[in-house]
Specification:
Length: 346
């Protein structure tokens, strides 16, 4: 598949810069992947749009202040996006990170961010660096919380605001570790989740800590050549057993977000259920993938040339998704993290 098939035209003013005041106030484009039929609804109606007794699977990862902006010992700027901790030894921690800044970045580059000391220890594959963190006092985690910032995506063209600490997070976020939010879930409120349960739907949670595997763009000419970064996933034994029972009962599995799709399909047991899992996943789902767990998908609108758009096309078809995106643009939907949503039904 050529990279150009993941392109589409999007007016910049359709990129949502702030969340809606009401999380459930988003619009919802409903796409039936068999017929390619498109309907336009409100996200607040989702409980009535799902197949009766569906099982909604949520990603409970919690975003932490992963963006560090420091000053190098040479006086220049160093920006670090922490993506995954690799080791802890006393007051020191080592992380994989995306780094940018003034001048050349190499092993030995040092900077300070508040009372946190940062040193680049080595350049890794795929544009990542290993960095060593040390707090001048207390634990590294506490220092990161003091000097780190909410890691808003680069297409949100404004400074981080106090409200982002709550709005760039799902209401059910629990397990700390994400460098980006699983944004499809940001449309849910506790009230809407209660409504889903009252209508007979079940809700399960898993964890995938969002990192470069989710947000790094595809740069190769053919998407099959793209290499996915690993992201940490946990699917507990109880959730795995519940998904197996749901499959046996013929209930629809609805993934909330592409991260959930990737986690469930990576843990597929070959019989329609999933295995319990606690470890790294780097499955790249693209057109041609044979889905064995996920039936339906709740998702946002994704960037061109992204693995996320490739995943949605794998589920619903390349031409079908391109037509749906064109209609969303024509109808002035809001795009990306703080934007509107899409429901892909079998």
């Amino acid at each position: 598949m050529k990279i150009e098939e993941l392109d589409y035209a999007l007016p910049r003013e359709l990129i949502a810069q702030r969340p809606l005041e009401d999380r459930v106030g988003a619009r919802l484009l409903v796409l039936e992947r068999g017929s390619a039929r498109i309907r336009h609804q409100g996200f607040c109606q989702i409980a009535d749009l799902l197949e009766p007794r569906s099982v909604l699977v949520l990603n409970d990862t919690r975003v932490f202040p992963a963006r560090l902006v420091g000053t190098k010992t040479t006086g220049g700027r160093l920006e670090v996006l922490l993506t995954r901790r690799t080791s802890t030894a006393g007051p020191h921690e080592r992380w994989l990170a995306l780094c940018s800044g003034s001048g050349r970045l190499r092993a030995g580059t040092r900077a300070a961010c508040g009372d946190l000391r940062i040193e680049i220890t080595q350049r890794m594959e795929g544009g990542l660096f290993e960095v060593a963190l040390q707090a001048r006092q207390g634990a590294v985690r506490e220092a990161v919380d003091r000097c780190g910032q909410v890691p808003l995506p680069p297409y949100i063209d404004r400074p981080v605001e106090e409200e982002d600490e709550a709005s760039y997070q799902t209401v059910y976020a629990r397990t700390r570790g994400s460098a980006a939010a699983p944004t499809a879930g940001m449309h849910f409120t506790h009230g809407l989740l209660d409504t889903l349960r009252s209508r007979g739907h079940s809700i399960l949670t898993i964890t995938l800590h969002v990192g470069p595997g989710t947000f790094q763009p595809v740069r190769e000419g053919r998407i099959e050549e793209h290499r996915m970064h690993e992201e940490w996933v946990r699917i507990g034994r109880e959730a795995a057993m519940a998904l197996g029972r749901a499959h046996e009962q013929g209930r629809r599995i609805v993934a909330c977000g592409t991260t959930v799709v990737r986690a469930l399909e990576a843990a597929a047991d070959g019989r329609g259920g999933v295995r319990a899992l606690d470890g790294p996943v780097n499955l790249f789902i693209r057109p041609g993938h044979a889905f064995s767990v996920v039936d339906d998908l709740v998702t946002n609108f994704h960037l061109p040339r992204s693995t996320l758009l490739a995943l949605v096309m794998a589920l619903a078809g390349v031409s079908t998704v391109r037509a749906a995106y064109a209609e969303a643009v024509q109808r002035r939907y809001r795009f990306y993290s703080y934007g509107d949503a899409m429901l892909v039904l079998r």
